[in-house]
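In this supplementary section we document a worked example of the pipeline. Step one takes a protein sequence of length 90 as its only input; no multiple sequence alignment statistics are reported here. Step two produces a three-dimensional model, which step three serialises into structure tokens for compact storage. The input and output of this example are shown verbatim.
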Amino acid sequence: METLFPIVVFLIFFVGALTLITWHQRSMSARRTLPARDDYVAAHGSTACRHCQSAATREYGLEDQSDERRVVACTACGKDLYQYRRDGDA
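The serialised model returned by step three reads:
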């Protein structure tokens, strides 16, 4: 019985870590498949959020803070909207 406890704790951490990694991979995959800004505007008529119609947005890098590929998200509801490639001069 005393050897069962460490095994259970190890399995709980292992399953938890596997769940977090899977969630992160799905999230990154969804961000990589976001439409381009021009496609988003063509489909929805403007850059406003299609979920809550808010015009307030924020942007962040796809891979890291300095990434050229930028993801634009709604500040009101937090949904990712579209992506674009930032010029290297900025």
